[in-house]
Fold this protein.
Amino acid sequence: MLTEPAAAMPIPGHIDPVPVPRAPTLREDGRTDLIGLSKEQLRETLATAGMDARQAKLRAKQIWHWIYNRGATDFAAMTDIAKAQHPWLAERFVVGRPDVVEAQVSTDGTRKWLLRSPDGQDYEMVFIPDADRGTLCVSSQVGCTLNCRFCHTGTMRLVRNLTAGEIVGQVMLARDSLGEWPSQPEGRMLTNIVMMGMGEPLYNFDAVRDALKLVMDGDGLALSKRRITLSTSGVVPMMARAGAEIGVNLAVSLHAVTKEVRDEIVPLNRKYGIEELLQACADYPGANNARRITFEYVMLKDRNDSDAEAHELVRLLRQYKLPAKVNLIPFNPWPGAPYETSTPERVRRFSEIVFEGGISAPVRTPRGRDIDAACGQLKTAAEKKSRAELDRLAAEKQAALG
Ligand code: SAH
Ligand code: SF4
């Protein structure tokens, strides 16, 4: 009897990258949201709406600065734009924010927002304040196609990719809520961004890149690329582009050192194995001892947490000569999860072995567990509707808008 070769076996529940973001539904009021546009795209948008070319160039520059540097959402506040032009702009455009469905605060100060897009998609963002920094954990997709077995988000059906506007919109909303406009380099609470919310950022590459370019622009949100980290579960073919076109810090969700275990817990490993992944890390531009690659390792009881695995981790990172640090994440449980958290003693021992191997391996303190805001706990109610149902609803809505 012929059997399928292992490599060709389908990954349960795995859908290949959504090649393009599903077009966001038009706003009901017919206006265009300017959030997410580069200066050039903003100029084109104004010109297409009928503004003459010279005006469009000047106005695009001004409006862009108001949006990203000053946090303005109202054209009337844009004082260097002729008053007579305000109604023309307001009839055609908005400067939007995601709708906040729910905002929660953890006992440890972590905040979680449930957000909703105009077409009814829910996604989450989390703000983690620390003594010396504040980190915003940003989502790149509604749900995730990758189904890592320990991740709650992975149990959602992917609804859609977020647009660049929805990604940068999370940062804008956080700034609103922290009262951090205009953009200023000193004294901010929001100092760092991690692309570690819902979704796999390298499966939504263009939108993530465009959003992060807006975040990094010195004239706009002005966060340094050194304070931004993109986490990937190992989408090897996109890693070189991420280095070249985005250039932020890289974090890789390694989580296991053998094919057998990684195949089980990060099913993408069946497509891009550990060796290929580590080679892509070694080739990642900009990685050096001052800017190390973070290897995330979720500690799952009796599954990936033995002494032998800690030694193997050191060996592998050395073999590829990686400027590495390891982040040990105690598994954050969720209802029905097939794993348990390693004991604190086990986590400590694992960390010691990696340290003794010359690689820093701090244990990440779980934050916001009481409000399900910790790593891997994000999951919204959107999964209750099937993809087909959402397509139907979107089609109905579009038809109603004509
Ligand atoms: N999709 C990207 C980024 C989002 S997940 C990625 O996988 O890297 C952010 C981090 O949280 C990843 O390292 C992920 O593996 C980890 N994570 C997921 N579920 C977790 C859980 N239940 N407990 C602890 N960490 C988890
Ligand atoms: Fe997706 Fe990352 Fe969760 Fe894996 S860990 S399912 S890639 S969000």
Notes: The chain has two domains: 7-11+32-94, 99-383.
